[in-house]
Predict the 3D structure of the following.
Amino acid sequence: MEKPVKEIKENYFKYRKLLGEAKTSSVSLIVLDEIKGNHNNTRIKKVVICHSTLPDKLELTIESKVENDKDFKFNLRAPEYTDKPFFRFDSDGLSHYNRAPDIELPEQKIETPHFHKFDSKGRNIAYKTNSLKKENECKALLEDINLCMAHYCDESKTYYNKGEYIEIIQTPPNELNFDSNFDNPLEGVIYE
Amino acid sequence: MSKLENIFQNVSSCFDQLWSWKMRGANTMEISTPYSTTTSKFVSLFVTERDGNFIVSDGGLLNAGAYESEIDYENQCLLKILYHYEAFYEVKKTQDKKGLKHYYKITPKENLIPNLIYEMAQFVSMCASAATVQFEDPKEAEEKKTFRKKATAYLHSNFQKFRPKFGAALDKGDYRSVRFSALIERRNRLSLINFVTGSTPANFRNSIARANMNFEIAATSKYKGVIDHKIVLLNNQADGFVMNQIQRQLQVLEEHSGEEAVNWSERERLLSIID
């Protein structure tokens, strides 16, 4: 079962500081020039993030599918605190089940794109911002990874140089862009 | 309408609201179902039509880890559960070009697509959930997982040209349950690699025994003539690596495999053995 994260539940004060207070990126531009181990179809890059009041060294990881640049994830981690990402954005993928008491069943299903954070019980909660709930705004955001990143920067208070949005280049300049908007997992697969 | 009827209407309507869909390319639809997993994901299935047949597939998501539930192919209890579901729902399997397993069902009758969605959703939900059951001591599970990750990454980066298969079975027929940590095929010759580790000496001995048994089965199988190496990659940095408590078992393993085990701290030796 997806268990509540003990470290977050036991020290929620720290979680609120981690997420709620300003964080600074060591770089302004992130080029996804690495491939994720064991996932040849995923570009990845990790950068160091500093927190304004906590001494923890934080990490921001960006992942993006090689063949579909509309499918990407942003993760913020604090490895000394917990091994789970403490704040996440998924542009595509499976819907999340927010299994919490007092939420009516239809509202417990949160489709992508969505953010993930933790509540005071250490439960992983997916949510949509107002921009993600509005169909047109959401569509516009997904067209451009940098608009999503800016939204992520504001939601997590993570910036470069006190207020500048972090930018991402998905395909390194020296590589061919294989993006083919490949979002159909059945394409090319032989079934009988 | 009575209160109880209202309750029924509400239940039915709430369940209905959990269905959603989106197009994936021109001819495939992703249906997100009301079935969920204990990893807090809703099961998605993909429907397409090919040559007059309707296919309902998991899209490779189960095998790709999209449900955040890694299937441990060394766990015989888990495998029994998964094979039970596979057989009961008569689920078929195929592989895509990236080597991802796709589970699916097929029908020529459009009116039976709901049946396939119903069974495939149950199947995916149960498999993804069963894979997260804590079958063993968490410390042991962590030890195995960490070593598997380290060793897999090492083999992957050093033997990429031979396209090693990880957690692979000897074949998909009679030997589907005889799995090795890694299989390397070169010029139709096979090298079998087993990772051996344990958080305690007792677990370490079990790991040795499992490796030994699988090597023995391979050595008496129809593949015996094509096996070049039976390699044991030993985590000599694990808490369970206490030489005087594992020595006898290790000796038996080395006698049977005919090769000296490779210690993790001397993993470079693999380069000369396999190259």
